[in-house]
Specification:
The protein contains six helices and 14 strands. By secondary structure, the protein is an alpha/beta fold. It has one domain: 4-Layer Sandwich (Metallo-beta-lactamase, Chain A), CATH 3.60.15. It has a six-stranded mixed β-sheet with strand order 1-2-3-4-5-6, with helices on one face. Strands 7-8-9-10-13-14 form a six-stranded mixed β-sheet. About 45% of the residues are buried. The model has no long low-confidence stretch (mean pLDDT about 90).
């Protein structure tokens, strides 16, 4: 499988990833950030067949381009089933997200397998940074897209208003659901450089 990282460095600084089957060109976009035009240019140049958009959580810097990209490609977008809880949150209006994306997201249950050409990703629910945070894990190829749950030498913030953050729950999920993966597993975070499970174990 091809993993291509696109790092945006403006006000919506974040990592977007393409996860593509090199034989068929079928693939998904993970956390498209805010630059649909740039992503569409890359897709067209490579003649990739994007089938889905996958979201690790609903913070605006990861989802701003979702509606434009979904419309242009005519593909659905998916995230944790817990995203719907934002709609009933008293603090939602202050939350750093997009109402229309969260309202219309297609939900994935914990453990759902997403087929992508010859590869597959398992959605693993990892709340703590936000109420709806999750990661996508490719066991065969030893890679995981971790959003803002874990970074190289760090973890996601838990103090963003309306996000449902909880540091104790976040650290528990990192220990139990990420650091229990094989040590050589490459972790592709929502910000910054990749790391590995083995590298991050020394911090816990």
């Amino acid at each position: 499988m091809i993993v291509q990282k696109i790092e945006f460095t403006d006000i919506f600084a974040a990592n977007c990833y393409f996860y593509i089957d090199e034989k068929s060109g079928q693939g998904v976009v993970i956390d498209p950030s805010a630059h649909a035009d740039k992503l569409l240019e890359i897709i067209k140049k490579n003649n990739w067949k994007i089938e889905k958009i996958l979201l690790t959580h609903s913070h605006l810097d990861h989802i701003k381009a979702v509606l434009a990209l979904s419309t242009e490609l005519n593909v659905p977008y998916f995230g944790s089933a817990e995203a719907a809880k934002y709609l009933s949150s008293y603090d939602f209006q202050a939350h750093f997200t997009n109402w229309d994306v969260v309202k219309n997201i297609s939900h994935l249950e914990d453990g759902t397998i997403i087929k992508v050409g010859s590869g597959e990703l398992k959605m693993i629910y990892t709340p703590g940074h936000t109420l709806d945070s999750c990661i996508y894990y490719d066991e065969k190829n030893g890679i995981a897209f971790t959003g803002d749950t874990i970074f190289k030498n760090g973890i996601g913030r838990t103090d963003i208003e309306g996000s449902g953050g909880n540091e104790q729950i976040l650290r528990q999920n990192i220990r139990m659901k990420i650091l229990t993966l094989p040590s050589q597993t490459i972790l592709y975070p929502g910000h910054g450089a990749p790391t590995t499970v083995g590298t991050e174990k020394i911090f816990y």
